[in-house]
Amino acid sequence: MTKQSFLITGASDGIGAVYADRLARRGHDLILVARRADKLAALADQLRSDTGVSVDIIAADLAKPDDLARVEARLRTDETITGLINNAGIAGETSFVEADPAFLGGMIDLNIVAVTRLSAAIAPRLAAKGAGAIVNITSVTALMPDSFTAVYPASKAYVLAFTEALQVELGAKGVRIQAVVPGITRTPIWDEAQLANIPAEMVMDVNDMVDAALAGFDQGETVTIPALPDMADYDVYIAARSALRPNLSLARPAPRYL
């Protein structure tokens, strides 16, 4: 990559913080967004000291409309920002019948609404320039919603479909679009008690996950699944999905419904 400036959400720890480290070491300037101003400031100081890049911070809760609007305005007006890493998100819901509707609403606001609006804030600039990047962190649960809770995988399926659609529109204009689809990754979104009950071979180190995601970006992938040994398997899935297309919208119901 040539030198760019990336805005990273959920940047105070976990995946976002590792992205910040890796991009800074590549020489890119950063704008880090998260709720905890103290953690952002400490990370920014460390990155400036280690790499010499410019690091700005925005303390914001992207599930809150006013905070989201502040970050949108920065993306819309700051011509120096050439890349967006949509990483902020939450999980942790209970079963659907026991779920707190307010928590589910907050999850949708952060995992779906914020991703959409931040992308919409920067996309016109990037498309006009014919350059830049939008990277959306989704989840393998988007591909297997029957194996998890209800709302989190649905929110991540939205992000994956959204990214595929962005690729069609913005990729043709020169903007790099990538969906990163990690499996279980050792980050603060999981507590150690949860991870202790998961086979170790299913849990990826966060550094390995982000390094794989960046390798996928460098290789020009639109969808990067860090744990998948052979992307041909995913291509088969996409081909099977595409094969349905000619028969998904027809003038008459299928014979079995007549």
From TrEMBL:
MF annotations from Gene Ontology: 3-hydroxypropionate dehydrogenase (NADP+) activity
Catalytic activity: L-allo-threonine + NADP(+) = aminoacetone + CO2 + NADPH; 3-hydroxypropanoate + NADP(+) = 3-oxopropanoate + NADPH + H(+)
Keyword set, alphabetical order: Oxidoreductase
EC number(s) stated in the UniProt entry for this protein: 1.1.1.298, 1.1.1.381
Source superkingdom: Bacteria
RNA-binding is among the record's keywords: no
InterPro entries in the cross-refs: KR_dom, NAD(P)-bd_dom_sf, Sc_DH/Rdtase_CS, SDR_fam
Broad EC category: oxidoreductase
Coiled-coil residues: none
Domain Ketoreductase residues, every copy: 4-193
A Pfam family hit: adh_short
Listed SUPFAM superfamilies: NAD(P)-binding Rossmann-fold domains
Its biological purpose: NADP-dependent dehydrogenase with broad substrate specificity acting on 3-hydroxy acids. Catalyzes the NADP-dependent oxidation of L-allo-threonine to L-2-amino-3-keto-butyrate, which is spontaneously decarboxylated into aminoacetone. Also acts on D-threonine, L-serine, D-serine, D-3-hydroxyisobutyrate, L-3-hydroxyisobutyrate, D-glycerate and L-glycerate. Able to catalyze the reduction of the malonic semialdehyde to 3-hydroxypropionic acid.
Family: Belongs to the short-chain dehydrogenases/reductases (SDR) family.
Identification of the protein by name: NADP-dependent 3-hydroxy acid dehydrogenase YdfG
Organism of provenance: Sphingopyxis bauzanensis
Lineage, top ranks: Bacteria, Pseudomonadati, Pseudomonadota, Alphaproteobacteria, Sphingomonadales
